[in-house]
Structures
1.
Amino acid sequence: MERRRVVITGLGCITALGETVDGFFNALCEGKSGISTIESFDTAAYPVHFGGEIKHFDPAKYIDFRESKRMDRFSQFAVSAAKQAVADSGLDFSKEDPYRAGSIVATGIGGIKEIEEQHLILLKKAPMRISPFTVPRLMANAAAGNIAIQYGLRGPNFCVASACASSNHAIGEAFCNIQSGRSDIMITGGTEAALTPIGLASFCAARSLSLRNDNPTAASRPFDRDRDGFVLAEGAGILILEEYEHAKKRGAQIYAEMLGYAATDDGHHITAPLPDGAGAAKAMEFALKDAKLSPDRIDYVNAHGTGTDLNDIAESSAIRSVLGEHASKTMVSSTKSAHGHMLGASGAVELIICAEVIKKSLVPPTINLENVDERCGANMDFVPLKAREKKIGATMSNSFGFGGHNACLIIGKV
């Protein structure tokens, strides 16, 4: 069966580095950091006092006040980013068949803020004092459901939860859904709001986070020999995927074409990747095959690049094994150095970056990369410190998650 072409026609994001796509991407390419001291709760007893916190977020700019009160912060982020993406796409869903449009939106954690708040009420007051909106707020599929409600979408609607690979899995499934002919339009991406007391404490206990409290903006250091962990962040990224002829017929702007998607698992360890990156390499290899591209067609890789010792070594090894001789000529950057690790939202935000890279011929840097760890590849181009202008034909975006999940997306210029 002939596969239908799928394109990206709308983008929206809410991040600590910017609450619009243009603002976010411009700050990214200017080498700015969205990492700062956490203000939403007291971190005095924590070993980590900073993160990618979105300050003074006001969902009322996008969502009816009463509706927003029935959502956890992660859903508020998702619906707000979706409103941006739909406006950007120019879609009018009143003119679309609602059964040909759907919403697949990922999260790694879901409504953890709601769980924490209602648990305190349970302990301090009584069981029946808990809000009747607790379940609709905390459930992981609430973001996808709320987006569908906003636009009256009646096609496929579900949530993907696969830790830090969640967004790439969600986007990949949305891509396949349109490609196979089941839908014409999908609102997809990921959202996360796990920068909470329990969320931060959990990753502190796992010893996953950077401890650079004296210099938060320099804390996220992917591929640097002095890296000491990732930086926890929050946010959302939402994309509009559309069947090419459908988009063309209505005169839509097209950022890029979805070309390939693949997913694998390490089958190795619940948190640590395979040391040689073999599982990640297979996801990249299969995605290239799905896209019908040779390795030398990839101009830019947005790396998962968390800034942890094991991930950066394994991923760089995987990139070298898949791209071969072309690896040293391919620009590879980890934008988590600037926006932090948004867990289940990271992949979506990073694919938005890839779409902007293709549109604007500008590759964002890996900030804070002062001394490349030779174990990550001394000859690789990690685009250190400064953005670089270059026309980009095709990009690869990697996301890997606890549980051994690996997911790779490839997009290209139309």
2.
Amino acid sequence: MELRWLESFVTVAEELHFARAADRLHLAPSALSAQIRALESHLGVRLIDRGRRSRPALTSAGLLFLEEARLTLAQAARAEAVGRRAGRGELGHARIAYVASAAFSGVLTDVLTRCGGPETELTVQVSELETPAQLEALTSGDIDVGFLRWRPRYPPEVTTTCLLVEDVVLALPAGSALAECEAVPAALLRDEWFVAPHFDEEYGCRDQILEVAEHGGFPPRCAPPVRDFIAALTMVGGGLAVALIPDSLRRVRIPGVTYRPLADVALTTRLVGAYRKGETSPAVRGVIRRLREAAADVPSVSGRPPGR
């Protein structure tokens, strides 16, 4: 049974006039009559009495069938709309992971806001996860999109979009003499211990610490690595170390921590959106599209080109 047969039948039932129904459907009257006969033949019952001297009338079977035909056409229209919206990424589910600075910078909330527009019914699951764990989860399919710190290399199946370039600033104990400086020269950090998250040692903080130490003319002293930047800031608040952090983490208010720019070393860091190449899920592609839109709209904090 074809949907066009049902549409033709419902239109004739509403008009009770074959010529007017054919005009509404942009069909020749003979083609419309053929569709009604095909439907009746398929069902094995007459649906419309075609009186020669009177207007067509629905039979008792036609009256019962009319309600079901209307429901079927309405459901078909809903199914078509759902399919089209799903194809545009307006429906479905996506799993997102993020590092803390993605939330504090506002980049993550911007993308989530774009995903929650009035035209969408996209459900998004979010969870905080370190950068290396995000890359593993993307590769295994446990997450769909990651907001993470830049890396010089990614798994072959993963690609990225740069979302934000921001300055690296110094977090130091509020009671330190260095807190009196408006901007801290690298040479004054000679006697400080530097703490960094273990996941950012190899590609981020380690190189930044080495650059600051080289500029200040001293060998760096590194405390044991910690789990994440929040743990690093806790160490700083306890007076045990200083830390180089993305500028967006200034918004983290931990007792005993103050933030200062570096006076003579310009460091930047990048936040990227990561996702699988050739993603097939329309919902995930919808998130990626909105992520790229956000990347085009968000200016860098530093105003300098991307760096470490």
3.
Amino acid sequence: MLLLLSFQTSFSQTKEILGDTTYWYKNNAELHKTLDLKDFEKSTDEFNFRFRNHGQVIEISKDSSNYSGKIINYIFHTKRSNKNEFKILSNKIDLSSKQTKEIYNIIKNSKIIDLPTDEKTENWKQGTDGITYLFEYSDKKKYWLKTYWTPTSQDSISEAVIILDLITDSLNLQETYLSFKNTLPKKGCYNSGGIVNMCYASNSLEFGYSGATKFPFGFYSSYSANYIGKSKINSGVALQYNFDNNGFHHLNLQFSKWKIFFKESNLSDFLAYNYQNRIINFQDSKNKLENHQFKYGLNLKHNIGIGLGLDYLTRGYNKIGGNLYAYKWFSKPNVSTTLTTSIFENQINYKAEIFKSFNINSKLPIHRFDFGITYENFMNYKDLYFNIRVSI
């Protein structure tokens, strides 16, 4: 009877809990489950230690002479169209027994287990926009959770020095996390648990109707991409084709690449090649026009773009002229304007475009409609184009 009572007492014994563990487990239950973290409150190991930073967890355990540890990198991934739904992407690096033992010795020698939490540390300043480090420890009898807000801002408080020494010791955590982020798809938005989102400009596919007063039928399609998979390409292609029932047509094909030499948000560059092939009814005769445009330009502050290049006219003309380009985007009305001019000797050609965009904030794959009008005078052939485009 005495033996049974002793067994029941031992079985029902619970650990002493120190720190606000309720808040952590209530608000991070899904993350804890996804990362498959050990439950320190229930663990019977003689030593468990976990260090948590935005996007990284380092977890080590010791029981008798057995050492085990792992580094888990994680990040929250959302689509640009719906930032309320996210996925947790992660990878795990298992540490060797030797590595774990070395970290165990560092932790024991650092005396971090004996430190009070930041709220109970004299002169420890608090804030809202720094980095909060979270530490957990358990043995067979107790479990504690402690947080420390931005040790780098604590004016060399001895406790902060201990924490910083531990964080920067031997694990190359920043390099490890950067390697993990480099494996991620370059699309959507990412957050490591802080207030800052890192979003990639979405690859864009556009298609729609393109018509003109002299070419009532036609279509437009374009695709632009900053990344394909993990490869940065910063390139795009666009095709516009207009035609009628009498065998006349206008083909316009463009290839472009951007951020070649200048890659900042307020200064980037682009290179574009434009090919046009026309069979037109002009002055009661059938005319064939073909030209190749090459231009280099800059995207400047305030949504302004400028460029210049060459325009080569073939099909019997064999003329080379200059090409000028100007672009302006007006953010509030969501309107873009473009003016392109080419000059062959005394012949001035020009094309003026204006587009109005309507953004759609929904879960649908369509996120924008564009309506545009283009007027062109090319070698004295004039036409007015109408465009309706959908962007997905």
